[in-house]
Amino acid sequence: FSSTCGVQAGQKWRLEHGLARSGTEYGPMTDLPDWSFEDGRPAPPLKGQIRRRQEKETLARRIVMLNSEVDHGVEAWNKKQEEARRTEEHRKSLLLKPKGKLLMKKSKS
Questions:
Q1: Does residue 109 lie in a domain region?
Q2: Domain of 38?
Q3: Is 75 helix (H, G, I), strand (E, B) or coil?
Q4: What is the structure's pLDDT at 5?
């Protein structure tokens, strides 16, 4: 007697081998057409294939948008760091400079 769910049959093995959780998520059995015409023309895409293609396109567009946002954020952070460095250098340049004996002692060391 087993109390495990039959739906998860083989799920662990597929994940360990780098495959989809189930056999119906992706792969030739879901992505390729079920049939073709005798003269070699492909069959029209099925509703599920069209839906999966649209989901993949939507995901790809979202990935590109998020990637551009990250790039913009990194660029803004770099600019902010550069501005802070310039401000710090300018602040240090405004400090009083050593004069007389202190300047001579500092230049010899």
A1: no
A2: 10-44
A3: helix
A4: 59
